[in-house]
Design goal:
The complex is a heterodimer of chains A (117) and B (112).
Chain A: E1 4-7, E2 10-13, E3 19-25, E4 31-38, E5 42-51, E6 54-57, E7 64-66, E8 76-78, E9 87-94, E10 107-108, E11 112-116
Parallel strand pairs in A: 2-11
Antiparallel strand pairs in A: 1-3, 3-8, 4-5, 4-9, 5-6, 7-8, 9-10, 9-11
Chain B: E1 3-5, E2 10-14, E3 19-21, E4 24-26, E5 32-38, E6 45-50, E7 56-58, E8 64-68, E9 73-78, E10 87-94, E11 100-102, E12 106-111
The chains are: A mainly beta (117), B mainly beta (112).
């Protein structure tokens, strides 16, 4: 298993440009997440998905959009890039826990470093 | 709102020193607790987790953590650190929903 893969690894965007961060997992996990990691701030949840066709906002969703058309893929879209979106983005997935409760470990991808100038 | 506090932002230790990293959370119900580690240039990976049962949890690479419910704490410990333990450590809490709350992280530097 490749686990959770993310592309690209690094990208520089100009203000106002758009891009899609790709995330794929091959573990057949129901749950997928997007986080951003800023220095000294830990990880903040942007969006999450509990299965194909179902997504919901996390703590910091403004400026982002997601879709989940398949179990494997969970792309994150930036429509109008802003300097405040300079960050490292991590995708993660997890299987359902016992009785469908969310308890399990999250598996993280290697991250995408985004710089908006 | 739920929150996770890691009070030590930067820790510097010499090899063979003992380590304890603090983690406190704010949530009154049942929680699942995690410690993740991020080695330089790598992605986050699980060190250990607590769901229920014995409050003293052992993880990989000699790490352990103790859940103290009365103190809302889940501190990470290692009796003797190595240079290879240099990394950033994150405490995380999940209260049975789909949202995990992460602490701000502790950067550990171990001097050889």
């Amino acid at each position: 298993n490749a686990g959770v893969t993310q592309t690209p690894k690094f990208r520089i965007l100009k203000i106002g440009q758009s891009m899609t961060l790709q995330c794929t997992q091959d573990m057949n996990h129901n749950y997928m997440y997007w986080y951003r990691q800023d220095p000294g701030m830990g990880l903040k949840l942007i969006y999450y998905s509990v299965g194909a066709g179902i997504t919901d906002k996390g703590e910091v969703p403004n400026g982002y959009n997601v879709s989940r058309s398949t179990t494997e893929d969970f792309p994150l879209r930036l429509e109008l890039a802003a300097p405040s979106q300079t960050s490292v983005y991590f995708c993660a997935s997890s299987p359902p826990g016992l009785a469908g409760e969310v308890q399990e470990t999250q598996y993280f991808g290697p991250g995408t470093r985004l710089l908006v100038l | 709102a739920q929150s996770v506090s890691q009070h030590n932002h930067h820790v510097i230790l010499s090899e063979a020193a003992s380590l304890e990293l603090g983690c406190n959370y704010s949530y009154g119900g049942t929680v699942n607790l995690f410690w993740y580690v991020q080695y330089p240039g790598q992605h986050l990976q699980l060190l250990l987790k607590y769901f229920s049962g014995d409050p003293l949890v052992k993880g990989i690479k000699g790490f352990e953590a103790e859940f103290i419910k009365s103190k809302f704490s889940f501190n990470l410990r290692k009796p003797s650190v190595q240079w290879s333990d240099t990394a950033e450590y994150f405490c995380a809490v999940n209260s049975g929903t789909y949202k995990y709350i992460f602490g701000t992280g502790t950067r550990l530097k171990v001097l050889a």
